[in-house]
Design a protein that fits this description.
The chain is α+β, with helices and mostly antiparallel strands. It has 11 helices and 10 strands. A 4-stranded mixed sheet has the order 1-4-5-8, with helices on one face.
């Protein structure tokens, strides 16, 4: 029997129930279609918005909750269905929306945030470039001043929601001489002339998540599209990566925990040599280790969620949570595949899909190696 988690109150659990009901009613029955289409349909976003699930990170007037624990509950419930759902919703609502909400002008907020909360304006964030990976300071997409306008040229890759997004918060270089101090964020609408998308990228996992390359060829914007301050984009991104990494950590652990629970049941039901396979000492000990690993990790992560909801979480603790949970998830799911035997390698089994989906979490939001580098620096090394 696991210790009772104490960071969620009655309001959070009531919210959890409403999320779960929506998922069971509208999302889970369509999950195979999402895989076939390699994207979440607009109906998904509109219904999520109608239920009030997309504005949690926004100001109260746009449906904000003012408490990150509600965001965490949503991520946990989405992750129980599959790893792609909290990824797509998180990019839209938890990761990109706060840039507009916290850095945008009153005009920008009024222009975009109602649609963001309603699921009518789908968001993506354009950071990663083909040659840069985790090195955000080395980005090559440029914005050149031309009178009252900026002319943007370049490309982004591995952009979640990229194929469907209506608005992309895009990091570009506005001053080539200043390195990371010459980067600015622009909100670029997909209807802009010169903006185009590549194909939906063919990924190893998370097929429900539309991921695309984005191209900018002489895209013209004005100062009205700048998010935050000119040449302060790198600082803005560093400040916002904290919540991104925590959101990833919440989804990582909830996803792994759900599949482990299902695997436990499988080991009780599956018979070999006259008994359930879970009764074999090796499997029994392994499951004991995996559940302990999940619950110990959950205790640390709950403390991080609570700290963040109070505005007290450091970027180092967020980095620890991100790398640790992605590592734990990969280890746990690899064992879950093994416990399923040959069936664990079949795509029709959830465990196989979960195993594939989880692998990328050690790469994105800053690779685990980058997370360790940040933690090591904090140790004075």
């Amino acid at each position: 029997m696991a210790l009772k988690r104490d960071i969620y109150e009655a309001d959070h659990e009531d919210f959890r129930s409403s999320v779960r009901q929506w998922l069971e009613r509208s999302v889970i029955p369509n999950s195979e279609k999402y895989i076939a289409d390699k994207a979440l349909p607009r109906e998904f976003w509109l219904e999520a918005g109608e239920n009030g699930f997309l504005g949690l990170a926004l100001d109260e007037e746009y449906g904000g909750a003012g408490d990150f624990r509600f965001n965490a509950v949503l991520a946990e419930e989405l992750a129980k269905v599959n790893a792609a759902l909290p990824t797509c919703v998180g990019i839209h609502a938890d990761i990109t929306a706060p840039y507009i909400n916290e850095l945008g002008t009153p005009e920008q907020k009024e222009r975009w945030l109602p649609g963001v909360a309603a699921g009518e304006i789908l968001l993506a964030i354009g950071m990663t470039e083909p040659s840069g990976g985790s090195d955000l300071a080395a980005l090559k997409t440029t914005a050149t001043r031309d009178g009252d306008e900026w002319v943007i040229n370049g490309s982004k890759t591995f952009i979640t929601n990229g194929f469907s997004a209506d608005l992309v918060i895009t990091a570009v270089r506005t001053d080539p001489e200043k390195g990371p101090k010459g980067i600015t964020l622009f909100a670029i609408e997909a209807t802009k002339e010169g903006f185009s998308r590549g194909r939906k990228l063919d990924k190893v996992g998370m097929e429900e998540s539309d991921t695309a390359e984005l191209f900018f060829e002489n895209v013209r914007v004005t100062d009205n599209e700048i998010i935050g301050e000119l040449n302060m984009g790198f600082i803005h991104m560093m400040q916002k990566l904290q919540q991104e990494r925590l959101s990833c950590a919440v989804a990582n652990l909830a996803h792994a925990k759900q599949i482990l629970i299902e695997t436990l049941q499988y080991t009780k039901d599956r018979k070999a040599f006259g008994q359930s396979i879970g009764q074999f000492q090796h499997n029994k000990f392994l499951l004991a280790e995996l559940f302990t690993q999940i619950e110990v990790s959950e205790a640390f992560l709950d403390r991080c969620v609570l700290a963040h909801s109070k505005g007290e979480l450091s970027h180092v603790e967020a980095s620890k949570a991100k790398w640790w949970t992605s590592q734990v998830q990969s280890e746990v799911l690899d064992h879950c595949v093994q416990l399923h035997g040959g069936y664990g390698f079949m795509n029709e089994y959830r465990v196989a899909r979960a195993w594939r989906d989880a692998r990328v979490t050690k790469i994105w939001a800053g690779s685990n190696e980058i997370m360790k580098e940040l933690i090591g620096r904090d140790l004075g090394l």
